[in-house]
Amino acid sequence: MARAAYRRATDDKAARRAYTVHSVGIGLTWAAGWAPIGAITGWVTAVIVGFPLGVVTANNAVMFGVLGFIGGTIFSAVLSLAESSRSFNQPSLPPLATQCGSH
Question: Which of 31, 32, 33, 103 has fewest C-beta within 10 Å?
Answer without folding.
Answer: 103
